[in-house]
Amino acid sequence: MSLGLPGHLVQQTLARALARAAHWFALTCLMAAAVSVSILSLNRSPELWITIVVVVAMGALLVLFTRHRRIALAVAYLIVGTLGVYVFTLTVLGVPDVFPTSNMYLAALPKMALVMVGGAGSTALGGVLWSTAAFLLAEAAAFLAILGTTVPYRTDLFTLSTYLVLVGAMVLAGIDRRVSNAAQPAVHRAVQEGANRQLRDALDTRAIALLNDTTVAQLVDLSLAEPGALSPGLRASLNYTLTTLHDTNWLTDIDARSSTAPQSTVTAQPTAGDDWHASAVYTAIRRCRDRGLTIEVTGDRDALARLDAGSDRDVGLAVQQCLVNVILHAGIASAEVAIESDLTTISLLITDAGRGFTESESASDRLGLRQSVRRRIEQLGGSVLIWSRPGAGTSVRLTVPAAQGQNVPVSGRPTP
Amino acid sequence: MTRATPTPRRPRAPASASQQRLDPIGGLAVWPLAPVVAVIVVTYAVVTTASRLHEIQIVEVAAAAVAVLIIAAAALVWSARPDLAPFTRGRAIVIVALGVTAHLLAAASTWHLNGMIQDDFAPIGLGLLLLALAPFRPGKEILVLGGSVALVVGLTALAQSPFLDVQTLPLLFAIIAMTQVLAPTLAGAAYSRQVVNSIHRWQTDARRAIRARTEASRGLLAQSVVDHRLTNLGADVLPFLADVLDRGSLTAADVKRARSLAFQVRRVLVAEVDHTWLDDLIDREREALRRRGLTPLCVIADPERRATGFDSDQRAAVGALIVALCTLRGFDPTSLVVQIDGSGAAPTDTDHITQAFGHRGARSTPATDTMTMAIVTAAQAHAAAQARAQARAQAQVHAATTRPRMIIDRHSSAVLGAVDTITIQAGISLPSIQRRRALRPYLSVLRAVFTRVRVTSRHPLLTLEFDAERGQTPAPRIKGS
């Protein structure tokens, strides 16, 4: 992923993440303290029950504060925490003959939890102030409590170092140390331009495919025709080409048609024959038959109804291009279109017994296959496989995803 | 009554996501955390060991413990270095394993003589090392590593409890030691999770906005594409077709002209199809340099059109870098060279064509637009029908028998190294420190989306080389007939 956080969100995001981290640190300390004093209370010193209460109270306030992040809850946590630290230190260190000095890690646990209130600050400075207040209050409460016990006072480095690490982290996060403020917007621009370019490429792909289907195919047809009066088929296709290019806004019209629902979901269920005759594949086959190609159609023709309008149109145009290739290149006037389907896909196999071709030939003259067939089908999420050999014909298999079929017919079943 | 449309759930961030991976430029800002933590860990270990010499039974083992922890800290700093990004799981495991080794050595060095568990440097050091992983590794991974370490530390504490100065319940020592690891672990994991979620939310919204903006310009783009295409078609084609339709007849000159126009239009379209996003990008930069009054000479060498195999993030990263290079002070406009080569199959359009039922060496049959259709006699039609049936059967047999092989071949070739290597060279007359500072954020983005980013510099020539591994996209699978 290239889209990093923009400058204005960095501080806020890091402050939130630090707060979350601080709260989990505090909760772990409080849980450890609660478990420890519970074990001690059960096994050795029943008077420690009071410490369990203050630790649980601190934990409950911390959870509330984590969820709601209100100043009032932070203040409440600070007050309850200070009292809690006093009670906890006094009671725990008061247990006779266990703790030799005051700087016990167990006694530091609620203090460290209290210091973590610093996560409340939405800015680095705010966090540092909250933490400092908590640190001072915790140390003062602990000092007073220790005075009430018999253990000697020793500086608690655990709480001090925790406080310093937290403050250091907050200051580090608070300083905008981003090396270059220009880089992130530049990456954002590049992503936006990439998206524009991708859309443009998609439109270009369609446009080139359409020009190949219409203009180039038409010019080739004319170049192959005999001088004299235009045949009705040639006249019709010329008319179609000019109307498409002149009188319609091709790409926009295509988009509008693409947005219609899949044919199989319309409420009024058309009959099987209607589905087939309404499909773009049928139109493509009819057009090529008009141009003199004998086409045998086998298989599950009704499966085409499972294609949505956009897929139907593109599959039709791809089939048309395959059949036009047969007319132009195969040196034969017949071809076969076999339609197969399974639960999630529809395949069309266009086969001819013509000249065939080799990979090297197709590389230099590949516009039709590449643009009008492969890219079209790949844009639908489908795939194209081509088998060919000079002298042994060509088979092109177009496979496209389709809406789930309810009754999947037997593949390759010949239709009357 | 209409039902309210349910709000779509935001997609979850991938489990492997980390702050460094999702926001490489932001990751640069937090990397100093690693050396700071390393210094704290090492200082604490040295000071604690020196102040507890009376508890050490085997000095050599104690020294080894500190040495191993220093290595772990050094490994953390090395792993977090921006020029070696991304911070991998393997590195995290090595660091933690070194820390655990240091802990076991430290415990062995003070065996029977350890006064208090809470003074041991290793649990706290380990906790800090785990905390320092937060910007670089996913939260779950930190949790798993921290949990494992806490278990080891807890067991070691239990084992030492009979010999400690403070006599209380052994479980308390285990809890104390484990808390020293678990508290920073949970803090690190929580930080990682929160930051990753925030960045992911922002990215989702930003991408949605980008999509919306792109869609909003669809109409204008479509119109410009149509205009461009019609312009490229040439002024003659449509009037020629209209004229033929009006006349209703063809002359020999028309046939000749149609052939010539078909050739021209096809040639233009093929050239346009070969144009990639990289060509567009360089064209635009060339134009921008010209507008600045410079004479650019930018070279692209991508003969196999490997640029088409790059995903959108990779394209954006390369785009941002090239734009940054071209606008950098001291950039030599005649020096930019972008080259893509690599190993493995290039994303070509002909790689699917299979010589299914013949030999590759078979004589080719010319296939041109001017080929006239054969006259099909009845006998030929019969022969053709037979041949077609045979061709179709062979295609189906081939599809059924060789499809798995094709899929495996393509997949394994991707795994075995379908790698595109992009090399960008540019002359930049800037002191190397300034140049490094200016390009560092772009390089961090490159490292997040490419592998093996190498930067070499021979003033003023800067060479950036990086690999794009294709094969993330699964090979298309075709249902059998």
Automatic annotation (TrEMBL), chain B:
Keywords: Membrane, Transmembrane, Transmembrane helix. Residues 1-18 have a biased composition (Low complexity). The chain crosses the membrane at residues 28-47, 59-80, 92-113, 120-136, 142-159, 171-191. The keyword Ribosomal protein does not apply. Coiled coil: none annotated. The keyword Transmembrane applies. Residues 1-20 are annotated as: Disordered. This is Uncharacterized protein. It comes from Cryobacterium gelidum.
